[in-house]
Amino acid sequence: MTLEEAIKARHSVRQYKNQSIDKTTIALLQAAVDDANRSASLHMQLVIDEPEAFAGGLAKYGKFSGVSNYIALVCRHGDDEQLGYYGERIVLLAQSLGLNSCWVGLTFKKQPSRYTISSGEVMRGVIALGYGATQGVQHPVKPISQFCKLNGSMPDWFRNGMEAAVLAPTAMNMQRFEFELLPDGHTVVARTRFALISNYLKTDLGIVKCHFEIGAGTDNFVWSK
Ligand SMILES: Cc1cc2nc3c(=O)[nH]c(=O)nc-3n(C[C@H](O)[C@H](O)[C@H](O)COP(=O)(O)O)c2cc1C
């Protein structure tokens, strides 16, 4: 499965089968986590066979069941966009390896004995991973025109990027983001839009930028500095 196919196939899954993740898949996920941590100075940690985070009332309220593997999303204060970007790369890898996933900011219980949070770092949530009882369902997709600003016509690569971006997971499916193609025709600005609940806007921005890059192709544009 390519990353483009993984973007289309991925939906949040909250109910999982009682099936362990095989060793080869765990090794691939661990390598991806290590790579991401090295590239962006993050401190994500893969936690395997730990059912307690999703055993309590909050997880039940969030309709989670059977979750016993996750990535603890630990990073330095202010690195949320990077966390979103690199976390979503791992989500798409997981999807291509036959797993399902769900970003979870709130509806779980922290298990600090199972991962390390160093001084100056914060735990922003987890990504639940496992073999889903279902493949989930696609969230309602609004027209891409609602999420972009153009200064001329829309090139195909920009449209492909936008189509990938609107399929991305965002907290509470808020989708408070916007992509602008500058008049030079190859510089793209990605920004958040106002929201009353703003805790995950930067994480969401990193996630949608990850999707946009895969859809648009990194050879076709540069991010605005
Ligand atoms: C940063 C972030 C935090 C999230 N937190 C939760 C959560 O606490 N509980 C939950 O059930 N879903 C959570 N979600 C999943 C979103 O509700 C889901 O991505 C959104 O509704 C879009 O659906 P989709 O992922 O199936 O496309 C979160 C998603 C993101 C990106």
Please give a handful of descriptors for the protein shown.
single chain; 225 residues; alpha/beta; NADH Oxidase; 2 domains; 4-stranded antiparallel β-sheet; 8 strands
Describe the structure in brief.
It is built from six helices and eight strands.
Overview of the molecule:
Strands 1-2-4-3 form a four-stranded antiparallel beta sheet. Strands 5-6-7-8 form a four-stranded mixed beta sheet. The protein has 225 residues and is an alpha/beta fold. 32% of the residues lie in helices and 18% in strands. It is built from six helices and eight strands. The protein folds into two domains: 3-130, NADH Oxidase; 144-223, NADH Oxidase. Flavin mononucleotide binds at residues 11-12, 14, 62, 102-107, 125, 136, 139, 169-173, 200, 203-204, 207.
Topology:
Blueprint: H1 3-9, H2 23-40, E1 45-47, H3 57-61, E2 70-76, H4 80-96, E3 100-104, E4 121-130, E5 148-149, H5 156-165, E6 177-181, E7 187-192, H6 201-216, E8 222-223
Parallel strand pairs: 5-6, 7-8
Antiparallel strand pairs: 1-2, 2-4, 3-4, 6-7
Helix pairs in contact: 1-4, 2-4, 4-6, 5-6
The structure holds flavin mononucleotide.
